[in-house]
Design goal:
The chain starts with 11 loop residues before the first helix and ends in a 7-residue tail after the last strand. The radius of gyration is 20 Å and the shape is elongated. By secondary structure, it is mostly helical.
């Protein structure tokens, strides 16, 4: 397999491995030494109040999704390079956490979506960023307030 331009250098041995057996060994090394510990830290931080079994399930799902993405990249089924393995792994873990919470609390997710829709489609309402980057919402006339 040829190298994919723009990809993180840590993926180069995996992507350029001449035979699948070598690629599988390199993928295993990447997942075990770099991705799995990072995913575990992200999931533990995002879902600290959940039982360990739930966190392990979410982490396993994130690791599986990352594995599928890396295999697709090697096979040429994905043309989007992974510029930073660390950033991509963190995003994958965070997305897995969000998906878990959405599935666990569908009413909360639905309500949040409805509120965001209203804030974005009613001229009398607005969202803005307050001190310290805190997201605020309310009447459009309040936009200058913290």
């Amino acid at each position: 397999m040829a190298e994919t331009p723009g990809c993180d250098v840590r993926l180069s041995r995996f992507l350029a491995a001449p035979v699948e057996q070598e690629a599988d060994l390199e993928l295993g090394r990447i997942l075990a030494t770099e991705a799995a510990p990072l995913i575990e830290r992200v999931v533990r931080a995002q879902l600290a109040d959940l039982p360990a079994a739930d966190r392990e399930d979410v982490g396993s799902g994130a690791l599986l999704r990352l594995t599928e993405t890396l295999r697709a990249l090697r096979a040429g089924r994905s043309e989007t390079p992974i510029e930073s393995l660390e950033a991509y792994t963190v995003a994958t873990a965070r997305n897995a956490c969000r998906a878990f919470l959405r599935a666990r609390r569908p009413e909360h997710t639905r309500l949040g979506n409805q509120v965001r829709y209203l804030l974005g489609h009613d001229d009398g309402l607005a969202t803005w960023e307050g001190r310290g980057g805190v997201a605020l919402a309310g009447l459009a006339a309040w936009r200058a307030r913290d």
